[in-house]
Here is the input.
Amino acid sequence: MDQASLQRTAQYIAELQLPSGALPWFNGGIIDPWDHVEAIMGLTIGGHYAAARHGFDWLADTQKSDGSWLAAYEDEEPADDTRAETNFVAYPATGLWHYWTVTGDLKAVEEYWPMIERAMLFVIDLQTPEGEIYWAVDPVKGISRDALITGCSSIYKSLQCTAALATLLQQDPKPWLTSRQRLGHAIRTKPHLFDRTWPTKQRYSMDWFYPVLTGVIQGDAATARLAQRWDTFVEPHLGCRCVEEEPWVTVAETCELIMACLSANKRAAAEALYNSIQRFQIEDGSWWTGYVFTDDVHWPDERPSWTAAAVLLAADALFSITPAHNLFKDHSA
Here is the structure.
């Protein structure tokens, strides 16, 4: 990706931002906390620092008193109030650490740290004695007592970033590191704790590569995990399938797999995947969600902010555009 292309992609995200600071999926689309944070990171990579700060402002303004956010919003109003998902609630910590790494803006960290701390306390309060973290809380029905590999892997990364933020602010990182250690052990060694009350999610590619992307699995074990289902999920010259049985590659999953490959020291594979998705960029800098290769159709007819942001994160990881290029490669605590 050349500099002009990168700037068009970041500008596309910036133009979607609402006056409140919210970053919807697309014009008229919903806002969910996880994808909102992904879009903030895209803005940060593109140098739109004021817009990124405004995105954190929206999070601060909409955070509930218990530290959580709901599943989806339409600007500042809830669009889905049936649950607060723990991986959504945790992801702002990753976004803020990313922002600090790029900008060195300590004032922003100090301003938003109370929000992050409340959010992460909400998350670790849902960690069981076995180590997994329940996936959601329904305001009416209560805790959804099951766990997701992908969601918990994302939380694992956010706990690393929370510990880093705490250390930066000269606070004790131990609670976050202890929770992270227990969570990682559960993901690696206790598969029976996940997908207990619904069909397995192993048909989704994210369950395959997210433990590598987020550092739960590293070294030779990471290389072996990617090799195990590579031919199942990777469509040559096109990218990564979202679901194993569907002839549909998606740009965001491909970009996350690119970063997982870099985490596992598979740079050639990462570069090949990156080259394969260039066909999916639009002239305005946006990117198609995905491509149904049996029908030669871009589907759905959407170009989400978070897909654009995932491309920027992958480009940064490959080409060291910002000081945060190691975000998903350095898993040291």
Observations:
- The mean pLDDT is 97.
- The longest strand covers residues 77-80.
